[in-house]
Each structure stands twice: as structure tokens, then as C-alpha cells.
Design goal:
The structure holds 2 protein chains of 2 kinds.
Chain A: E1 15-19, E2 21-22, E3 25-26, H1 28-44, E4 48-54, H2 63-66, E5 72-77, H3 86-100, E6 104-108, H4 113-124, E7 128-132, E8 134-136, H5 139-149, E9 167-172, E10 177-182, E11 189-193, H6 205-210, E12 212-214, E13 227-234, E14 247-251, H7 259-273, E15 276-279, H8 281-285, E16 306-310, H9 316-322, E17 327-332, H10 339-342, E18 345-348, H11 351-368
Parallel strand pairs in A: 1-4, 1-6, 4-5, 5-12, 6-11, 7-11, 14-15, 14-16, 16-17, 17-18
Antiparallel strand pairs in A: 2-3, 8-9, 9-10
Helix pairs in contact in A: 3-4, 7-11
Chain B: E1 2-7, E2 9-11, E3 32-34, H1 36-52, E4 55-61, H2 67-76, E5 80-84, H3 94-108, E6 115-119, H4 130-137, E7 142-152, E8 155-162, E9 165-172, E10 175-179, H5 191-197, E11 202-205, H6 207-210, H7 222-225, E12 229-234, E13 243-245, H8 250-262
Parallel strand pairs in B: 1-4, 1-6, 4-5, 5-11, 6-10, 7-10
Antiparallel strand pairs in B: 2-3, 7-8, 8-9
Helix pairs in contact in B: 2-5, 3-4
Classes of the chains: A alpha/beta, B alpha/beta.
């Protein structure tokens, strides 16, 4: 049994990011987290390190992480690490963390990150905050964030400006409440971070070249692994890339009277805008669209240039996933639908009538330019 | 063989949610339901019971009214209920909660051919952390995001969902699985089940019952023992309402398109 004691917090330093790979390719979330981790490491005055596990040869992908801000990447290679496996990954990560003692450890909140992070936090006896959408070290930055993102009276409160805890903010209760979580007594302070939320730094080749690669020692044997992955199957259908889209046209319960027709109208508008189709939870739960289309608290968080909501009432779960879009256009029959409270432009009307007219008007406006 | 299913009673966040002026949730004004993913875990356990005749035990940690949820799950077909409830357990974060539930599950006893099931995540916190943390504390292998489960003796094969596909994972009992809604459609309570539920055993594990378990240490449970604390909680501000356009016809759409073009949005 390990005698590791994460309560000796002075022994811990550096910010680490778990860099997830699938089939030997880094995930887009890795670059987002490295970019955010860079800010946090700067605020703490420490190094930012990536932790990359994979099969033999994965080291070749590591330098790219430097281009987004990593000072160093720890690489652990083994044939047993080429495909994700909870036991093998948790064993290697916990051993390396116990040895090298990072102060903060960020993990992408993917289906794999959300499997791995709690297992590691429980073994390391430390705190973990799930699905964070905002991270701060500096109290001044955090106060500024609250000014913009909360209704709190920040000036009426006392603040310890020397506080160096990682302040991890996340939605709770389906987005009705936001909570900022701290982990003051144990290290590393761990957070999983929502994919698509943190902004990626521009790639810098000079920094990539300067990035240090280190291979820490670890042991891993068959006896450490209790599960066997017998196959990894990619979805046959190409999944919709909501997070990377500049234009999203989403449909909601309002298409119920003609589901296929409603989706077709949304696809036509999306095609005219050069974007993709999304949907509210109701459309996914009803089986009208596949789960990769879901926008919202239990789906994806998006911030496109334009978000068009067709027949979506605007439940708080949905708003939590799209309210930071640059421009929101809502079409709904009900003029009291909550979606109009956050829409930049609202049209009260039947989406089956309005959508084709809007598609045509946009086509004409683009042609006239 | 038995299946221990961890369940949670949660406020129904799909309806109207009331928030107190201080930013906390007004739970008293809200309906409670059994967490949706947990219902899929219960159904998966009951399906295995249908096939093998195994025992199904439902376990929850929560205040005493959560017992009514356990009665409902026993009316669906679960054989026994365990309510883990004590003032000392209140305010626990996911780490502390998983320690307490792990101690309760260990007290019930996990044998060679047993399975522990959880929902993937609860709709109040959406963390998905308690299942894997229980597995770690009990030193059980875990498979999360289970969309299909086949049991053949001690061998379990699970279809484990990824964002872009799935993995097939083989694991031996005892193990812990977390379930998602794609797994099944939960059954309803039966008339006979409702009739029988009050004759089924429902135990309460309080602090006295669990305090000597090796995982229960006053410094690692409850509000004080939780590694994480809430620093601030707040409600997001409403974004200011934008412009409602007059009408819903061709002219309205042309007006909107010209605004978008004028702002170089399209």
C-alpha cells in the first residue's frame, strides 16, 4: 500500500495537463487545456507540463504540445498504453504523480477523462472538480470573472488577494447554479475541463522546438490490469462537429409535427450559412437526431458566431450549452419562450413558415454583397 | 450472486427550478425523482435477475425520505433496500460520498460473482465521479458508460461508449459498471410489486453501523472531511433581451438578413 500523503501540499509544484490520445493522435482538448494551463502556470510562476501516455512511438507527437505552451512533456510509452485502459492508465499516472508531485492536474472531460480522473483522485486522496468551464488562480482575475459572469456583489465582499488555490468554476443543477470549488488541503488539485470551452493559443513553432521531453520511469505488468479491451469501433457515420462550427442551426420540440421536414429545413439553412445542425435534449431523447448533435448541459457547449434556435423553448439546460454564442437568432411560435430572453434577434412565428423564408433572404443578402 | 445498485434521489431539474436569493437551490419547492441514469442501472440489474434469479439490493445515501424511493425500486422488483443516512455523512463531496458508499457496500458484502452498478452521473451534480471512486475504494475493476452488458458466469462483456464510437471491454466479476440511458428502458412498478414492497427488508445504515469500517474516518467523511469545498456559488446573469422583429413573413426575414449582412455576420 502506498504511503503517499497528498496533504503535504508544500512539496507540490507545477501545473500538469493529461494529454489524451486516441489511435496515436492528440485530441483537440489537449491543446485547449495546454493553453489554459499556460495561463495558470504563469500566475503561479511554475512550469506547465503535459503528461502523455501511449504506445511505442507516441513521443513523436509530444513536441506539438510545446507549441501551445507546454514547457515540458512527460512521455510514458508501453504497448499496454496504446489503447486506453482504466487500470493501466491510473496505475502509471498515480505512480508518476506520487514521484513528481504536480500542484494542479487538468484532464479533458471526455468519456475517457471522466473515467480516469475520479479513479486517480480517489487513489491519490485528493479533490477533483468535474466538468469545469472556468479556471483561475489570481484572485483579481477571479473577481473580474465574477463581475461579468455572476450577479454577486463582489465589492461588498472581503477577498484574500494572496490566495493561491485553483478556483474551479462549473455549472450545477443543469446550469441553474454556478459553483466555484477549491481543494485547499490536498494536492494535486484536480479538475476535468469541458471540451470546447477553453480557447486554444496560436501554435508557435519555436516553442514547440524548445519543449523538453522527459521519460519518467514507471512499472506496469499484466497483473496491474483487470479489464481487457477486445475492440475499439469508430462510429460508421461521420459525427457532426458542433464544437468547431461557426454556424449552428438547432432544432427543438417545435419540429414535432413534421420531424423529417423540420430537420430538412434546418439542414438547408445550415448549408446556406456553411454550418451544421444541432438539437435540444428533446430531439435526442425522442430519437430524432443522434446524440452527437446535442447542445446543452448534458450535450456540448458551443460558442459559434451565429446560433439559430428553431422551435427551441430555451430550457436552462439548453441555454447552458449555447448562451455564449456571439449572435443568437430564435424562431418560436410562443412569444414568451425563454429563448427570447437571451436571443439577439427573435422572430415569433412558425418555424416551418419562417425558416425557408430566412434561408432565401440570407441567400439573397449574400448574393447582393 | 447478487447485484448491488447505487441510486440517488435528486431534484427534478428538467422542470422549473427555484433558486433562493442567496444563490442556493430551493429544494423544498422541487419535485424529487430517482436519478435517470440510476433507473437504467436498476433495470439492468432486474434484467439479470429475470435471467438468473439473482438478488438485487438497492443502496442510497441521503436523508430519511429517500427510503420512499427505495420502496418504489423494490416495487419494480429489487429484493432489498439499504438507506445510508447520518448527520455525520452530510455535506460530503464525491470523494467522501464514495468512501461512505464503499463502506456500506463492503458491509453488505461483495462476493466473487457479484456486480456493483451505478448510473453514469446524477442530474444535480453531473460529476460522474462517485461510481469510479467507489470502484477504487473497493479495489474493483470499473467499466463506465455501459450501453450493453452481457454476463456469462464470471465473465462480463460491456459495450462502453466513446464520443466517436465504442469499445468492447471484458471484465470478470466482481466489478463495478456505470450505466447510461442507451442501455435499456426502465420498467414500471407492477401492482404485485407495490403490494409486496412493504414486506421486503429495508435496512438503515447509520453512523453507528459504519463507524468501525476501515474506510470511515471522521477526517475523511462529511463536510469537514471532503477534499473539495464550495468557495462561491452564484447564478449566472440573464443576458439582456435582444430585438424582437415585427411579423413572421418575407419582409421580416429580409430585414434580419440585411442586419446580419450589415454587421458582416454573414
Amino acid at each position: 500500500m502506498s504511503t503517499f500523503n497528498s496533504a503535504d501540499i508544500a512539496a507540490f509544484k507545477d501545473v500538469w495537463v493529461f494529454c489524451e490520445q486516441r489511435e496515436g493522435k492528440l485530441m483537440p482538448t489537449d491543446f485547449e487545456l495546454i493553453s489554459k494551463g499556460r495561463d495558470l502556470a504563469n500566475e503561479l510562476g511554475v512550469n506547465l507540463c503535459g503528461l502523455l501516455l501511449g504506445g511505442e512511438g507516441i513521443e513523436a507527437t509530444a513536441k506539438e504540445l510545446g507549441g501551445y505552451g507546454a514547457d515540458k512533456v512527460y512521455v510514458c510509452e508501453s504497448p499496454m498504453l496504446s489503447v486506453y485502459n482504466t487500470d493501466a492508465y491510473a496505475k502509471v499516472i498515480c505512480d508518476v504523480i506520487e514521484e513528481l508531485k504536480p500542484e494542479a492536474f487538468l484532464i479533458g472531460a471526455t468519456n475517457i477523462g471522466r473515467d480516469l480522473a475520479p479513479r486517480c483522485a480517489a487513489r491519490l486522496h485528493t479533490g477533483l472538480c468535474a466538468d469545469c468551464t472556468h479556471l483561475d488562480i489570481d484572485v483579481a482575475n477571479y473577481i473580474q470573472f465574477l463581475r461579468e459572469a455572476s450577479t454577486l456583489d463582489v465589492d461588498g465582499q472581503k477577498w484574500d488577494m494572496e490566495d493561491r488555490n485553483l478556483k474551479m468554476t462549473r455549472p450545477a443543477f443543469g446550469g441553474h447554479l454556478m459553483a466555484t470549488i477549491i481543494c485547499p488541503r490536498f494536492r494535486p488539485c484536480m479538475a476535468t475541463v469541458r471540451p470546447g470551452v477553453m480557447k486554444k493559443n496560436p501554435f508557435d513553432q519555436a516553442k514547440a522546438d524548445a519543449c523538453v521531453i522527459e521519460k519518467p520511469a514507471f512499472t506496469l505488468s499484466e497483473a496491474d490490469v483487470q479489464t481487457e479491451v477486445t475492440e475499439v469501433v469508430k462510429a460508421a457515420k461521420k459525427l457532426v462537429d458542433l464544437i468547431g462550427a461557426d454556424f449552428i442551426v438547432s432544432v427543438g420540440r417545435g419540429i414535432s409535427k413534421d420531424v423529417e421536414g423540420g430537420i430538412k429545413l434546418a439542414e438547408e439553412l445550415a448549408a446556406e450559412l456553411g454550418g451544421v445542425v444541432g438539437g435540444s435534449r428533446a430531439t435526442i431523447d425522442s430519437g430524432w437526431l443522434s446524440a452527437d448533435h446535442q447542445v446543452g448541459q448534458t450535450g456540448k457547449t458551443v460558442h459559434p458566431k451565429v446560433y439559430v434556435a428553431l422551435g427551441i423553448s430555451g430550457a436552462i439546460q439548453h441555454k447552458a450549452g449555447m448562451q455564449d454564442s456571439e449572435c443568437i437568432i430564435a424562431v418560436n411560435k410562443n412569444d414568451t419562450a425563454p429563448i427570447f430572453e437571451i436571443a439577439d434577434y427573435g422572430i415569433c412565428g412558425d418555424l416551418f413558415k419562417v425558416t425557408p423564408l430566412l434561408t432565401e433572404a440570407i441567400r439573397a443578402a449574400k448574393a447582393a454583397k | 450472486m447478487k447485484i448491488i445498485v447505487c441510486v440517488k434521489q435528486v431534484p427534478d431539474t428538467s422542470g422549473k427550478v427555484a433558486v433562493n436569493p442567496d444563490g442556493t437551490l430551493n429544494r423544498a419547492s422541487m419535485q424529487t425523482i430517482t436519478n435517470p441514469d440510476d433507473m437504467n442501472a436498476v433495470e439492468a440489474a432486474l434484467k439479470l435477475k429475470d435471467e438468473t434469479g439473482c438478488k438485487v439490493v438497492v443502496v442510497t445515501m441521503g436523508p430519511p425520505p429517500a427510503a420512499s424511493m427505495l420502496r418504489e425500486l423494490m416495487a419494480m422488483g429489487a429484493d432489498e433496500g439499504v438507506l445510508v443516512s447520518a448527520r455525520e455523512f452530510g455535506g460530503s463531496d464525491t470523494y467522501a460520498t464514495s468512501q461512505i458508499l464503499a463502506a456500506a457496500i463492503d458491509t453488505i458484502g461483495v462476493e466473487k460473482d457479484d456486480v456493483v452498478m451505478c448510473g453514469r452521473q446524477a442530474i444535480d451534480g453531473d460529476t460522474a465521479q462517485v461510481g469510479p471512486q467507489i470502484a477504487e475504494k473497493l479495489n474493483l475493476p470499473q467499466v463506465t458508460y455501459a450501453a450493453d452488458i452481457h454476463k456469462d458466469g464470471e465473465n462480463i462483456t460491456v459495450k462502453r461508449m466513446l464520443e466517436d464510437g465504442y469499445m468492447t471491454i471484458k471484465v470478470k466479476t466482481p466489478c463495478l459498471l456505470t450505466c447510461i440511458k442507451e442501455l435499456n428502458t426502465p420498467r414500471y412498478m407492477s401492482i404485485g410489486g407495490i403490494y409486496e414492497t412493504y414486506n421486503k427488508p429495508l435496512a438503515t445504515f447509520d453512523f453507528e453501523k459504519l463507524k468501525d469500517h476501515k474506510l470511515i474516518d471522521p477526517s475523511t467523511i462529511g463536510l469537514k472531511g471532503s477534499p473539495t469545498n464550495i468557495f462561491k456559488s452564484f447564478t449566472p446573469p440573464q443576458k439582456g433581451a435582444g430585438m424582437m422583429l415585427e411579423g413572421d413573413g418575407k419582409e421580416t426575414c429580409e430585414k434580419l438578413a440585411s442586419i446580419l449582412a450589415g454587421k458582416h455576420i454573414i
